[in-house]
Fold this protein.
Amino acid sequence: MSVERDVMEYDVVVVGAGPAGLSAACRLKQKAAEAGQDISVCVVEKGSEVGAHILSGAVFEPRALNELFPDWKAKGAPLNVPVAGDEIYFFRSESAAFKMPNLFVPKTMHNEGNYVISLGNLCRWLAKQAEDLGVEIYPGFAAQHAIVEPGPDGGVIKGVQIGDMGINREGERKPDFTPGMELRAKYTLFAEGCRGHLGKQLIAQYQLDKDADAQHYGIGIKEIWTVPPEKHKPGLVVHTAGWPLSLTGTDALGGSFLYHFENNQVVVGLIVDLSYTNPYLSPFDEFQRLKHHPVIRKHLEGGTRTSYGARAICKGGLNSLPKMVFPGGALIGCDLGTLNFAKIKGSHTAMKSGMLAAEAVAEALLAGDEGGKALDSYPAKFKASWLHDELFRSRNFGPIMHKFGALIGGALNYMEQNWFGGNFPFTVHDLKPDYKSLKPAAESAKIEYPKPDGKLSFDKLSSVFLSSTNHEEDQPIHLQLKDPSIPIAKNLPMYAEPAQRYCPAGVYEVVGEGDAKRFQINAQNCVHCKTCDIKDPAQNINWVAPEGGGGPNYANM
Amino acid sequence: MKALVSVKRVVDYNVRIQVKSDGTGVVTDGVKHSMNPFDEIAMEEAVRLKEKGKVTEIVAVTIGGDKNEETLRTALAFGADRAIHIKEAGEVQPLTAAKAFAAVLKKEGAQLFIAGKQAIDDDANQTGQMVAALLDIAQATFASKVEVEGNKAIVTREVDAGLETLEVDLPAVITADLRLNEPRYLKLPDIMKAKKKPVETVSFADLGVTPAAGLKTTKTVPPPSRSKGIVVKTVDELVSALKAKGLV
């Protein structure tokens, strides 16, 4: 069915109002103003408002922000809680821990000069700055696909088409059907975050990753707690490795974080590497039991949980970076994969990548470029920047962990970061994609997770409730199965269908008995973390954008 | 014919409300806000009346701080022609709101005042009725169908016993119930255009309204949490459990 679509033309369209996209938008306007010209910039965001889909720890390194807005303090940026102390623990069991002496902490894990922030609130502030600079930001509109002008080598990206609204579950038009408009641009910057659904297509379409190592991912699950004032130590930063995940092994890696934020809030979370091997592992349940460890529980007891969410992160770093540019566009931030895993920080690197791409685009446009080129000046600027230097120094961190585990890998990383300044004279590669890491269920031990106690630990559904996620019910399911038979016919016998456990929002269920078993997708629960798209062993789940405005409504995440 | 539509900025319906730990109210900082869903229905109805040629101009009005401008922009994107922002950062009670809206209605000479039947934050369900009383004009509340014929409105209302149809003389107050219509999706071009539509800012003083504190909130507490259930294995066990609780 053909549709009449409204069309708007901009110089630059940015997909995603996160730290990368908003920094890029601001930088474009700054560069244009410096040159006394205008560059029109439009940002689209699938969340119902800026920040609604943003979830991060977060300990924030202000380096990129200092460059983007040197006067951020005067402008009221929400960086209110300087890091006041770093603690790192190795958990040997559910009750035993040893604290790492400060001397042995890898340099990348030192946080002096950093801030405990809510990245969602920083994005809300960045959006305000961007709008003051003349950027148009439209939350509640999801970019459905890139507009491609056919041509050699994959064609030229000409902008994005916004998703249609008012389509029912069967794909038919409802009375309120509203066609999505086309936002055309000379250059389009994709800043959807980790495993963006357009980024994924573009990487495939232009084979951007053909010279890169496989991307690696983790799933981060986070809660916000309000604790009694006497327990609150603003700026305290705690990281842990080991129990409930592997300490010396490599089959379930990851680590936890606990930060004391403002207003008696404590944020706590667990990042589980998606390279885990046991299909019975449930990141959600690992996180719930983590909170019972004495080192963690002492911060939370007597408090109440106020918020919950989850998001996948890209942790492959430099070795996994795909090519950044293609005709008419570029990938920035976690859509590209700029997170520095050695620091477990991706916000400042995302911002910087957005700024570098914006500088490249601005230079081209201000010199009269009509768009549609692959701007090699962006990767060139990246190579020459501190961002590349930083990612280069951290390039071995993840692969070493994958090969040697948290304890030995941690020691090697300490040596590399503190003795060699991140310059081991070799690079460790890790080529196995995360979806290939699962062992068959028959070879794996079932994991019995303790029942939640309703005080420190909770069940999945009451957790998802706290993400305030919602989707219009009568719309096509946005979690598409390429082959609907695979979950029951293959994944279930082989891997006990791991989607039931890796999804932190209870989207996937196997219901019924015997031959009547079927795979149920509760798409309304989805918190847009993208884990299913990453971890499904058959790579059979395709995450596409639902109707704009759907998804979680995070506050202070 | 001019229609005035009041739109309130409230905590979004998807957000799980949290009570402040000191019991002075609910947490609103950093929380998503949007237009009161019943006011969206009121807005939609006004736009439909305009599309039918019954209404010629739609004026949206809100009371609140700077951020209420977002709510007005949403109303303008729906199809309001212009908007009035009554700036007031503090708490506004229904009677104060009604006095302000009545003043605007009078000043604008609007024939229709359409509002949501209530706001989802305080659920007061008073403002529309008070506007009608203050101006001594007709009111048709809980509307599920609205037709305008000449100088009259025929309004179907949802009442306990079913549906009631009223004919009211204009000017009149109409408050929208859930089933009046399904608000449309806002279109991106309309949101773009809305940024350029005029918004007039006025104060209570400009309207000759003195905020009155008729009500005082003494305490806000969260609802009691549901106590844990028990699983019984047999009917006998169930009966004795119910007996033990004194329920049978």
